[in-house]
Structures are given as structure tokens and as C-alpha cells.
Design brief:
- The chain is α+β, with helices and mostly antiparallel strands.
- It has one domain: Peptide Deformylase (Alpha-Beta Complex).
- 24% of the residues lie in helices and 33% in strands.
- The protein has three helices and seven strands, in the order βαβββββααβ.
- The strands form two sheets. It has a five-stranded antiparallel beta sheet, sandwiched between helices.
- Strand 4 and strand 5 form a beta hairpin.
- One of its GO terms (biological process) is translation.
Length: 184
């Protein structure tokens, strides 16, 4: 199943997601559908709020972004908690499936340590770096109601306002299905 991706302007993207309970969903089907949705939109990460589910769950596939063979990971993160972010901050142009055609240079720490459960409910505590850490940080932000555009400041932010308003009104074309905020 391929879900429509929730567009910028929908309130669910601004809410802190609730803990994912072991018996709350058919996890196997949900994860499979999230990967199908992400891949259909050519993404490298997808958080549950982006498909309209306010749960602390995201998936990534950073193998598409890592230049070094075997460096990226394809992983499910349930109820994640970033324990530490460290090392040099570095800038990279980020985008988001919920905010199509908008990009911005975002500073993030190079490394992180995260605790999470996988889809089999095994607990992990791992360190990630480089692009994988960045994708995790981006998706983790979604669980806390934070969007990458929140890090953009000044004139660049003002220049994006019209684009963001158009997205929230449904005036954007994508190669994937989107769910736009309800008109009031």
C-alpha cells in the first residue's frame, strides 16, 4: 500500500508524536507500506507523521546517499531517542517529501548516538555519522514536530514563504500522491 504523503501546513507535522505501542498496529504491514511509500516518492527517509500517523516511528534508507559502498543503512526506528549529537557541524542541502521543491542548507552535527527498537522489538544503541546521521536527525525532527525549514533564517526564510503557502494550499506538482491540509 502506498500512502499519500502529508503536505506542509497539516497540523500533524507540528505535533510531537506519541510513543508507538507494541500492539497498536500491524507493524510488518505498516513498515512495508512506509518503505513502498518512501520508495515511490524517491525518498531516503519517512516518518510516521508524514503518512498521517502521530507515532514515534521512522524508516530510512541512506544507502542511496552514501558514496562509500556499504556505508548507508536501511533501518526501522521505533520510539527512538537521540542520546547525543556531536562532532563538527556541517552544512548540506536538505529537502523533504512533505515540502516538495523546497531545499535549504542545514547545519547538523556529524555524529549521533541513538537508542531505538527495530521492527522485531530488539533494542539497539548505536552511533551513526555522515549522511546516515543527517537522515536520522531529519526524520527524528519529524517526531518532535520540527521541519527542516525551521532551521532556515532571515531572507532565505522570507523567500520561501510564498512556496510554503502554495504547498499548504495544494498548489504544487509531485510525482507522488500527497494529502493537503483541509480547507476551512
Amino acid at each position: 500500500m502506498i500512502y499519500p504523503i502529508v503536505a506542509y501546513g497539516d497540523n500533524i507535522l507540528r505535533k510531537e508524536a506519541k510513543e508507538f505501542h507494541r500492539d497498536s498496529e500491524d507493524l510488518t504491514k505498516l513498515v512495508e507500506a512506509m518503505y513502498d511509500t518512501m520508495n515511490n516518492a524517491n525518498g531516503v527517509g519517512l516518518a510516521a507523521p508524514q503518512i498521517g500517523l502521530s507515532k514515534r516511528l521512522f524508516i530510512i534508507d541512506s544507502t542511496k546517499m552514501e558514496e562509500e559502498e556499504g556505508k548507508g543503512v536501511k533501518r526501522v526506528f521505533i520510539n527512538p531517542e537521540i542520546l547525543d549529537e556531536y562532532d563538527e557541524e556541517w552544512s548540506f542541502e536538505e529537502g523533504c517529501l512533505s515540502i516538495p521543491d523546497v531545499h535549504g542548507d542545514i547545519l547538523r552535527p556529524e555524529k549521533l548516538t541513538i537508542r531505538y527498537f527495530d521492527e522485531l522489538w530488539n533494542e539497539h544503541e548505536e552511533e551513526f555519522d555522515s549522511m546516515t546521521a543527517r537522515v536520522i536527525q531529519h526524520e527524528y525532527d519529524h517526531l518532535n514536530g520540527v521541519l527542516f525549514t525551521d532551521y532556515i533564517k532571515g531572507l532565505k526564510k522570507q523567500m520561501l514563504r510564498a512556496k510554503l503557502l502554495n504547498i499548504s494550499k495544494g498548489s504544487v506538482k509531485t510525482d507522488y500522491r500527497m494529502k493537503f491540509p483541509s480547507k476551512k
